[in-house]
Amino acid sequence: MIVYDLSLDQLTERLVSWGHPPYRARQVYGQLWRRSATYAEMTDVPAALRERLAEELPLGVELLDERTADRGATRKVLLRLGGRHIIETVLMGYPTRVTACVSAQSGCAMDCSFCATGQMGLFNNLSVGEIAAQVVWARRAASRLPPSTPRRITNVVFMGMGEPFANERPTLGAVARLTDPHGMRLGSRHITISTVGVVPGIRRLPDANDQVRLAVSLHAADEELRSELVPANRLWPLDQLVDAIAGWRARTHHRPSIEWAMIRDVNDSDDQAEKLARIAFELHAHVNLIPLNPTPGGPMQPSTPERIRAFVGLLERGKVNVTVRDTRGREIEAACGQLRWEHDRAMAGQP
Ligand code: SAH
Asked: Is the CB of residue 220 less than 8 Å from the CB of residue 114?
């Protein structure tokens, strides 16, 4: 249990049981979530209380490493959570927004063939506090962003390590914590859950939160190729997935996003583009194409710029909104589980 696991009510209950007035809990909670303060920095809280808090309700976040790329606009922090999980959180600054990319799990069981996290397997689920604390700590790093970007976090995407819907309750709990009006007050509409396509999770999402945005990692537009790239497709096939996304859209009236890693000679053919265009058009989805970030030792390569242009052309001809994502932080292994991978190698004494 770390302090970020507690709601304001739970923290109040605890502090009252220690003999403190409820306003102390509001003060501590506000410092934790609004100011990203550590206990040492809460100078308006009595020292004895801070000591007890540190002992019984630790922050549970250690900053192990911070690296920057793109002239400081991309920052990646390696965090140890709850004294045991090592995960990466990435901060990307743009002129009008700053996005924190958080992990829902340490490792991942989904086993997607092109993904570095998938190749390590699942270590642990993260708790509500361990997920939400990543944003608190990313916000500390946001104060060091260059002046060309906002110095606060405007968006959160669950595109770090792990599958959010394989750790569904803590993920939704973290969304609730991040949007808590007593705490960080992020808007749900600025939070995106990215899923490999866990159909039951997509179907349940509007009941928990009908504002949070949905991105689905499609990567292939027919059953055969998708099952090869994304083994979860064998459990939740494409036709059911498309149906679940359509259901989400009908209930929330929001535009879903489709993520598509562009992999050379694997999923970048005209045929795939045309099939994707039909699916995306039907779903009114926005398509994000991401040139594959090659994983160390993996055989797959990103599509060529010419192929990406042709692919975009076919999607546009199918009346689909499409964006080619810039590839931030490549040189600092900021993408897709690579940092943790590199950390593990370093720990094992490998080059
Ligand atoms: N499990 C969730 C969220 C984490 S992955 C999901 O699958 O959506 C975040 C995004 O990065 C996904 O779209 C995933 O497919 C993509 N991704 C993983 N490895 C990648 C790589 N090597 N290059 C480009 N994108 C990758």
From this structure: no
